[in-house]
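Predict structure. Chain length: 358.
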Amino acid sequence: MEGQGVVDGDGGIISIVGSIFISLSDLVIEDGEVNEENDGYGGGVFVDASDDVVFEALEVSKCAAYRGGAMALRDSDVLITDSSFTENEAGGSGGALAVIGADGDIPSALVVEFSTFDGNQAQNSGGAVYIESGLSVSFADSLLTYNTANSGNGGAIRNPTEIVRSTFFHNKAEEGTGGALQLLNSSSVTNSIFGGNRASQGGAIAVRQSSRASETFSILNDTLVDNDGASAQSIYIENADTFVLSNTIIMHNADEMTCAVESDEDSLDYTISYNDIALASGDAFCGSSIDEDNENSIHDNITDNPLFVDYTPYDYFGADFHLSPDSPCVDSGNPELGSDPDGSPIDRGAYGGPDASE
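Prediction complete.
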């Protein structure tokens, strides 16, 4: 199925409303547009009040809307697999996808797997994907590259619940926080790779708790390489109850940088352990809330070159971020997080831990 068009209303090409158990596959959608200024949803696809909707092998490109340039989901439960979203644009938020609404009979929930998001942009937040607070959205085994939040936060994704085995290269939020991710509610980021992302604060990831409920943010077994921020080149923690950073490799080759991880949240409960923070310059930590002398919260970190199989600085697409056999990160991770898939002691970095890919 192929389609293109311009409409006044929501869903430039396809609108699914009030459906249950619907599966669409092998769709090619381009040049869809919703004209409703400051209100239109889903330049290509709009899904509303629908349950168990599956999109497989969907290709959406060059669509535009105020929210969700390619697709918008409201009060719906959706799975997207083996799909691509390319060069879509939102006049507001969510260059490719916007996930909104939690007031209907079907709270919005989204699972994205084995999909790519490339060159999408939003004028505000969520260069590729915008998610309202309190919704469940997970990404697995996906690639997000060159997405941009022009004046907001979350160059690739604003407010995901879970990120697993995914890759983020060259996303940016230059006037905001979180070049790749902005995290607002309890969330975990695991076995993922971040390279060349850029933001004003938190070149790769920014944490800003948005509720008064107790929230926990976990960054486990990830690899963050040469991300860039005016402050906090890798991770910026603006507000959080509990923050855990473990088994992660943070590497910077720049001669001039401030620090890798920054927080001024005085009430922050944090654990930073078993990481490899290898910096050519600058400090590992800065801000008033992270005390490097607190051995209960900061321990078993190293500062050695992780010895990737193949990485030339700033060449992310040509890199192999697996560890060389003699890497100091091999078998040296946090044993409380389990073991590697082959049963050996857990490695640090994106290819360590029980859920790592080969």
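Summary: Residues 64-323 form one domain.
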